[in-house]
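hey can u check if this looks right to u? its 585 residues, i copy pasted from the old doc so theres a chance i mangled smth
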Amino acid sequence: MKNLKSIWFLSFLLIAVLFLVVVYPGIETLQGIPFTFLWVFKILVFVAFFSIVLFLLIEIKHLTRKIRTIQETIKSEGTGDRSDESLKGLGLKTSVDPEKNYQEMTQQILSLAQSSLVAQTVFIYFYSDADDEYILQEFLTSLNVDLKPSFHAANSIFNKFHQSAVPRIFSDELLKNGQIPYYRKNPRVGTIMLVPIFLKKGTFLGLLGMDSISKEAWSDDDTKLAKAFVELYSQIIWQTDVIDKQLTQMKFFDDICKMSNESSLGIDLLDLYKKAGAIIKKFYNFDKMTLATFKEEESRELHIEYVEGLEADYSIGHLIPIDGSLFQKVVDNSQTLSLPDYEQAGIQYRFRPDDLPLFPFRSCLGVPLDFGRKRFGGILLESFKVNNFAIEEAETLSFLGKNLSEIISRIRVHQIMKELALIDGLTGIYNQRAFKERFTTEIERCRRFKTSMTLFVLDLDNFKRINDTHGHLFGDFLLKKTASIIQSSVRSIDIACRCGGEEFAVILVNADKRSCLTSAERIRSNIQNFSFDKDKISEKITVSIGISEYQIDGNDLQTIFSAAGNAMYQSKRAGGNRVTMYKPN
């Protein structure tokens, strides 16, 4: 194409020059040019002209060919195979190229491994025993680097890896110069994990590897998840000739990847379970799916969090005893459970005694939900048919369970950190930030359900004297005890908070301020009568309380809090140790 443009340019240039020579022979600049030289220019202009005509014909021929190709493509798309249309209707890709499908699925697994294990580069190398060489198959990296197409294992961390063939983690101390041979130019690497890949007959094929900038990125528990990726990759190698199964699995992995990437730390667990249930319902045939988790770590009961299919026997909210149930085999052993026939397996009951005759379930497939040493629960699929679940389905469901477990682990850690951020470090009750969040939530609830809500604002009388006389340590002790007295003096559904210093607040839900006068007096009396004794110091203290009510005294946080605060200061002006309901001037 570049040569064609050059010829066009040269032809136009020759025509322009010769045009000047022939048309304007009297120009002073051109006088004195020999006649023979002018004829040479004339010949060149004819050559240039015919060159232009020739290349125009060639371009027209190419354009005609392109139009013909487009027309044939449109015609073939309009009369395409109905089976392709049905596959498109199912949302599946219609490619029947096993190599292409293999590459796409490998990329899916690498993407899952990278996102799940937070790796900067993930790669797959096959091993050549003859040359003691590793050959690159696929890789995924977040860095601006390239990986070598092959490298020798000698004098590197890969040396004799094929002989031991067990997962290994290499830390920063072991990664010396030359020990990382797969990069063209080595970036900063703190940890490398290598997991062997085997064929079904036990032959060492290669490895799945990943690295991270962190020096302590992974532990031995993370190798379990990495091994799950390897097991799936081994299955893909053997199943490249089964196109339908590959397409289904690829969509399955894609959905899991989306679930993992789209599940933010703030997602509600029920919404997460619905996402997982939708994926399972899409790819598995079952009559009932039960997802159950522990409410407490040491509990021997599972709480049903989500159900798909039949709900007439057990549904969301039911408690299932572990001992003797199908979940015991899943949770206690932390293994996949596959029972092709309940009768042959001698199963007496599913979850509780005598529940099996009620509904004719005949087979099940279950996987645990755990991450490291933490047990979360399990997923159980049941069918009315015998031998309903294949071996391959057990492996893929286990993979989904591992990814779901990791997401649950992240969410629970986030929830714990969030709760800690909302708790006052001294008193153990909610802090001011939590008070604002809960108060706003309760206002919305009152608006929705047309209910009432009352607010107490409390302030300890003459607290500065306690700090000045006995010091801040005793003052902190008194604040802790006061918070405990306030919390024990109200209902369990009421919300006690420390707003700062010696000021507290209590949100009383579904209650008007007149009916709450008794509770306010109980708090005042309990604090007045309590003796604060510590380190041979004994003190008494009183509290001033102001009361306001939603809608009557205001419709937002600032107005209602200000009203209760004004009533509390009215109590203080009256001498303290009293309760005052807010009354507008």
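The mean pLDDT is 82.
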